[in-house]
Design a protein that fits this description.
4 helices; five-stranded mixed beta sheet; Cytidine Deaminase, domain 2; 25% strand; alpha+beta
């Protein structure tokens, strides 16, 4: 299993490839699946902001496209170059579709790598 530091390095590398001409927030995400697959994604902005895709959703959708609808996330890391924040609310909800409440989610906070469970980040997920 890949540790949080290694996963963050993959997220940092893909963040440098982000297309963020409007916000200037280059975000990268890396995740490992239960099957052991490593998938990355970066944010891709659009002049119509609603059509922008976040790094986390980009990585998750790539993982589903490769492993199928049974894909489960084992761990996930996200970074915004020059900024610090956890996944946005929309991404947290999408992460919850493919991750268990105890899923470790890593990000930078106050200059340090922080890992919280999905349940800590999103205590009340929307479920049908």
């Amino acid at each position: 299993m890949m540790n949080a530091d290694e996963l963050m390095n993959h997220a940092r590398a893909v963040a440098a490839k982000a297309y963020a001409p409007y916000s200037r927030f280059q975000v990268g995400c890396a995740l490992v699946t239960a099957e052991g697959g490593l998938y990355t994604g970066c944010n891709v902005e659009n002049a119509s902001y609603g059509l922008t895709i976040c790094a986390e959703r980009n990585a998750i959708f790539h993982a589903v496209a490769q492993e199928g609808q049974g894909m489960r996330i084992a761990s996930l890391a996200v970074i915004a170059l020059g900024h610090e924040f956890p996944p946005c609310g929309a991404c947290r909800q999408v992460i919850s579709e493919f991750g268990a409440p105890q899923l470790p989610v890593s990000f930078l906070q106050n200059g340090f790598l922080t890992t919280k469970t999905l349940a800590e980040l999103l205590p009340a997920t929307f479920q049908l």
